[in-house]
Design brief:
The chain is mainly α. The chain has a domain of 77 residues: Winged helix-like DNA-binding domain superfamily/Winged helix DNA-binding domain (Arc Repressor Mutant, subunit A, Orthogonal Bundle), CATH 1.10.10.10. It is built from 23 helices and no strands. Helix 4 runs antiparallel to helix 5 and helix 7 runs parallel beside helix 9. The longest helix has 134 residues. The radius of gyration is 54 Å and the shape is elongated. The N terminus is likely disordered.
Length: 540
């Protein structure tokens, strides 16, 4: 029932995912990605473009053209960064780089994606990691005498600037400008790249204490950007950025009046083109106005500027939070949909495996039961044969032990009688005092000594009972290591079926002593009440 419930649940998830995917597009996944990567989609505003890119992310597991998917990852990484989701941005950028390398993409495309990651790492103050990546990219791109050489050198210069290596940074920025002059000789240079390198060089000069040179470079950038006819959103952000940069440099150089001029130009431009101004632009201008008011000492202007900064910062944070939350929700939803599809696929595969395993288990169970039954019968027959053989051997051993015990008793009696006779003869010899006796005592003595030797040989046979019981002694010592040799011998005699009287005669003790020894042995072996000591020893 559980498996059936899981199956229907997975089917429901799958149908929901298919319905939603069909609602987005009925085109194949590769076609969806191709449409999303067209210029008119790329050039849309951030939120609209990001929404469309998420549509491509929803079908990424069905895309066969890996180079297109790598490009999609790169655009998603850029949009996520602009939305403030930095960690997610680096994840998708790295996915784009890895996929580009594995799919054999153009080295220039790989470099551009790597350069974007370098810029983001610098923004996250990971200058050392960015430098390592930038140097590797520069080495890989040297054989292509294109604008990317200038871009790569600019990225390395930025890394050294972050690490406060000002001379090295200046060398790479200058090399970037030289590369552009060489590659684009007699032609217009890449506009925004030239602006970026000059701005970075200005930042390097300012941090190195050469403020006049820095102001000159930023002024050149402002002149270039004012002369540009195509005034789009990117142009506006650069215009605001360079104007504020010049104001900051003038303030640090002590030229407060000169710092006001760029701000006035910005206010004038946005009054004519209010649609170009964003809240982020307004916040940057308000922050600069607050800094100027604080330096001049205008308390009223400072208060107004601080209120404007707080109000705009709150609005910008709210917008950023809303965008981030919306983006995270969309990413989570796409991830959930993909998980549903993967779950459905894994569920179907699991059911197939389960059916196959069930059949295999039934077959294996049948064969195992057959083998176990046959083995059980064979073992049962063998066990019965072994038990019968053990019983036969045990009976033979008991008879032999009985015979050996009787032989030992007979030998003991003979020996005792012979010794008594010899003792009597010795007394006769002592009492005769050299007088002749009617009986030849010497011949009698000689004959008795022969018998003693023969009885000693028979007694030696008795000692062989220990060899017969050697295996029994080993098991007995293992189970009861505290037993002494006399107790081990007593166990063997009792196991042979000898009575207390017979044991007393063999050991030359009284029957009462033999009975006490037997009792103490039973207690030492832990014989329970109602159980015979002989039976316990036979089980060992």
């Amino acid at each position: 029932m559980k498996i059936l419930a899981r199956y229907f649940l997975g089917l429901l998830f799958f149908l929901c995912g298919v319905y939603e995917l069909n609602a987005q597009s009925v085109l194949p996944a590769d076609s969806v990605i191709s449409l999303l990567l067209q210029p008119e989609v790329k050039n849309k505003n951030l939120e609209e473009r990001f929404e469309k890119m998420l549509s491509g992310l929803a079908v990424e597991d069905e895309v066969e053209d890996r180079s297109k998917l790598a490009e999609l990852y790169s655009f998603l990484g850029t949009d996520l960064w602009n939305l403030g989701l930095r960690e997610q941005s680096l994840i998708y950028l790295q996915k784009g780089i890895d996929l580009s390398k594995s799919s054999g993409a153009d080295p220039l495309a790989i470099y551009m994606r790597t350069g974007t990651k370098v810029a983001y790492l610098l923004a996250m103050d990971s200058a050392e990691s960015a430098l390592e990546l930038a140097l590797g990219s520069l080495e890989a791109i040297r054989r292509f005498d294109t604008t990317t050489i200038a871009t790569a050198q600019n990225n390395v210069g930025l890394c050294y600037l972050k690490l406060n290596e000002f001379e090295l940074a200046k060398a790479y920025f200058d090399s970037s400008l030289v590369a552009m002059d060489r590659i684009w000789r007699g032609r217009p240079k890449p506009f925004y790249l030239e602006l970026a390198v000059r701005n970075n060089l200005a930042d390097n000069e300012a941090r190195n204490g050469r403020l006049d040179q820095a102001i000159e470079l930023v002024s050149q950038n402002l002149d270039m950007i004012r002369q540009r006819e195509n005034k789009d959103d990117y142009w506006c952000s650069k215009y605001v950025s360079y104007s504020l940069e010049k104001s900051k440099l003038e303030i640090h150089n002590g030229n407060w009046n000169a710092a006001i001029t760029p701000l006035d130009s910005l206010r004038s431009y946005f009054s004519k083109h209010p649609e170009m101004q964003t809240k982020k632009h307004a916040l940057s201008i308000a922050e600069m106005e607050y800094e100027l008011a604080a330096l001049v000492g205008d308390a009223e202007a400072e208060t107004q500027a601080s209120r404007a900064v707080l109000n705009l910062a709150k609005q910008v944070d709210e917008e950023r939070s809303e965008r981030q939350l919306s983006s995270i929700q969309r990413l989570s939803k796409i991830t959930l949909d993909k998980t549903k599809r993967e779950y459905q696929k894994s569920l179907q595969l699991s059911e197939q495996k389960l059916r196959f395993r069930t059949l295999m288990l039934l077959f294996i169970g049948f064969v195992s039961a057959l083998l176990l039954g046959t083995g059980y019968l064979i073992n049962k027959v063998r066990l019965q044969q072994r038990q019968m053989q053990n019983q036969r051997l045990e009976m033979e051993l008991r008879h032999k032990n009985r015979d050996i015990g009787n032989l030992a008793m007979d030998i003991s009696r003979r020996k005792q009688v012979t010794e008594e006779v010899l003792s009597y003869i010795d007394e006769l010899k002592a009492n005769s005092s050299g007088k002749p006796t009617p009986v030849d005592l010497k011949n009698i003595e000689k004959d008795l000594k022969k018998r003693i030797k023969a009885d000693e040989k028979r007694e030696w046979v008795h000692t062989q009972v220990e060899d017969i019981n050697s295996a029994f002694y080993d098991r007995l010592r293992t189970k009861y290591p505290a037993l002494v040799p006399t107790e081990l011998e007593l166990c063997a005699l009792i196991r042979s079926g000898m009575s207390n009287k017979e044991i007393a005669e063999i050991r030359n003790i009284s029957p009462g002593s033999a009975r006490k020894a037997r009792y103490r042995l039973g207690r030492k072996l832990g014989v329970p009440e109602g159980k015979d000591l002989v039976g316990l020893l036979n089980e060992i």
